[in-house]
Amino acid sequence: MSGKLLIIGFGPGSFEHITKRAREAIQESEVIIGYNTYVDLIAGLLSEQQVVRTGMTEEVSRAQEAVRQAKQGKKVAVISSGDSGVYGMAGLVYEVLMEQGWTQHEGVQVEVIPGISAVHSAGSLLGAPIMHDSCTISLSDHLTPWELIAKRVEAAGMADFVIALYNPRSGRRTRQIVETQRILLKHRSPLTPVGIVKSAYRDREHVVVTTLADMLNHDIGMLTTIIIGNSATKLYDGLMITPRGYQRKYTLGAETQPLKPHQRLKSEAEPWALEQLDEQIFDESMEEFDEEDEFMDDEVTENKETSQLKSSPNLSPSNSLQLAMEALQLVSKGTEEVSFEFDNKLTATQSIFEFAVSPGIANKKLTAAQLCALGEIVGDRGDIEYSPHHQLIVRVQTNNPNQITSELSALGLLLSPIGDVAQIKACDFCNLEKGESIPYAEAIHHRIGNLEVPKELKIGFNGCGMACYGAVQQDIGIVYRKEKFDLFLGGKTVGRNAHAAQPVAEGIAPEELVDLVGRIVERYQKEGHPNERFHKFFKRVKEIEGYRHQEMVGFVIENAICGD
């Protein structure tokens, strides 16, 4: 049975602004997949559907899980606030499908259900600020280079667009909105009206109308949409109004208009409009154009003085640009030289290679040669971040990651991917003096190290009963004691209710350990939900390899007076 993907935009979040089709699609779905906050917003529409909810930055896993379940024949709803095709999940789901060779004819069905986008929700609360040409720009540079975003802001400011800013500021991204204001003040008056809308049509809705110069003095965050008026936008009674231009032809306060209906579209009534060619002259011009340049033929005549265009089904970006320039040259009939500066750096996303590096599973010491090599590779444009997991996180712009990995591996460094993978987090075995169990730690790494799993998985490994590196605090803990191994499962490593893993076995024979841990991790990989941490998985399935989950005795945490 063929499944179906329903990619739903449910609008700003209030029930009265969810479309009838969006409600129907949610109710007819068997599986609901979405960001935690979005699932909470539509909880009142859910009945017995399976719900897969994930946190921030987990968009790819949501899309992959949706496609996987749809291929199993299920109706799967992928939810986004606003419109799913405006910074939502629609494009990403299609990208995942494209990677898998999906076609409309043979693949799972896909229906994209539109919703009210944030710019329109915010605009309705501010008055009528987007009555004229407008654009939306996301200030998040997690996926788009800031240099490109800044160029778009500059262009929109110069072109006098009404501008809607998405993702204007977060806890870590604070400079982007400051830079955006600076750029726009070069092209707009400081008194340009600005609307700041937080949580439109939700419980904590907050609306502020201010100016471009004063906008940064107000609360701006990830739930905020900012609308910046153009040169014609006016403030009236606390509202932002952008005129469409009717005052150029009409007297808005008069009942009788000076221009009669049949006069309003005449060229003399629109002196600002682009001059139109006489229809007969235009037709003759196009006939001459076709005769001279033979656009109707597939062949290109090399002897012509003017270069011709040849259709190609696979145009590279540079070829597309070249064709556009040739077209302009042809239209201008060679009377003007057409030039255009094309900056590949700003139009193509630069690849950032991100990986973790360490001296080894047990070894914790880096040599001078290794550090020098890392510094040389990272250079001025990359960075190195220390992590609490005995690794350095390296980020570097490169188009040749294989060369980097080869060079560092040749120096004896252990390289690992970043993200939701299984990682062995071993101790230093008392500076390698207690090394009897090191071969088992390395064997586990070779078996399941860097294996892709639903959520990052840390396997703590300590070489003696002191467990001074905290193996028992990890998702899976292994402690070598009396020539055998003790096993701990389901540690919660973060949060105010963090807890140690449950001791499930003592005295595991060394020859059994690697396969046992491998089977546990491989089951988690196969049956875990996207973004589901191992301790939650253990609690949900109740038993792994004969080891039963036991409820932890917790304690009640009183809410702080400050409301945190």
Task: Note down, in words, how this protein is organized.
The protein is of the alpha/beta class and 564 residues long. The protein has 16 helices and 24 strands. The protein has helices at residues 20-28, 36-41, 59-71, 90-99, 118-126, 146-158, 175-184, 279-293, 317-331, 344-347, 368-378, 401-410, 429-432, 438-448, 510-527, 534-541, and strands at 4-9, 31-35, 50-54, 75-80, 109-113, 127-128, 134-138, 162-166, 193-198, 206-211, 224-228, 234-236, 239-241, 352-358, 383-386, 392-397, 414-416, 422-426, 457-462, 476-481, 484-489, 502-508, 543-544, 547-548. The strands form 6 sheets. It has a 5-stranded parallel beta sheet with strand order 3-2-4-1-5, sandwiched between helices. Strands 7-8-11-9-10 form a 5-stranded mixed beta sheet, with helices on both faces. It has a 5-stranded mixed beta sheet with strand order 18-19-20-21-22. A hairpin with a 2-residue loop joins β20 (476-481) and β21 (484-489). α6 (146-158) packs parallel to α7 and α14 (438-448) runs parallel beside α15.
Helix content: 25-40%
Helix count from the secondary structure assignment: 16
Main structural class:
alpha/beta
Extract low-pLDDT stretches.
292-321, 331-336, 340-349, 559-564
What's the multimeric state?
single chain
